[in-house]
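Handout, section 3.2

Students often ask what a structure token actually looks like in practice. Rather than define it abstractly, here is a full record for PI-PLC X domain-containing protein. The first block is the sequence as you would receive it.
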Amino acid sequence: MFVKINTSSPVPVVVVVAALLLTTAAVACSPGTCRNNSLPFNKYAFLTTHNAFAVEGEPYHTGVPRITLTNQEDTVTQQLNKPAVDTLKEIESFLRTNPSEIVTLFLQDYVQTPKGISKVLREAGLSKYRFPLSRMPRNGEDWPTVTHMLATNQRLLVFTSVQSKEKSEGIAYQWNYMVENQYGDDGMIAGSCTNRMESSALNDKRKSLVLMNYFGSIPSKKFACVYNSANLLAMIRTCHQATGGRWPNFVAVDFYKVVIT
């Protein structure tokens, strides 16, 4: 999910969330459940919604209303006007009430307040769920198994787009651990799957995770049923080749419920 939220400073942070709640895994999985949790985390696939939290018909859950349009029909800057902690409390509530779920946060990070992200994570009660930076593989190794992550309650992965915060705050720099293809219209060219500027080459297997974007620069619910069907499957196959035979772990789309049936 891409969500703009405000910290205690006026500087925003954008959050991308992928949860096992929205899983399409390589093993026998259905939404919210997997019959096989024994594989490493990087052997599963997570459906990730671009510009989410603006869910059509969905009420707020923390006592603080969100200023949103319907699901993914707004710009990032329209999404939220309340402090980050209010949105993060929704994530804490989800983790607390769903002990078999894993959540990944990708922070498109513009926060300049020193240790600002760590502060709001702590205030939201998320620190106890965080997967430790020290255990994240850096040289292409497998991640721990989902079974182990659930057993240790290390069910929240947090990544930042600011490289320096890995050292200053202990928050993993996203592109140290994954490769990512181009987003927007440039990432929807049939037969082409190239890395975004911040990512290393897609076939860099020192990065254990793969994030694949497939959504237009301007959201279009009208064409989502086309984008999210055969075209999406074709791009997954294209990116499978580009990444050296790896399936994506995160598939980011618009209007994830809109498909051709």
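Discussion prompt for tutorial groups: Residues 1-15, 19-28, 62-80 have pLDDT under 50 and may be disordered. How would you have guessed this from the sequence alone?
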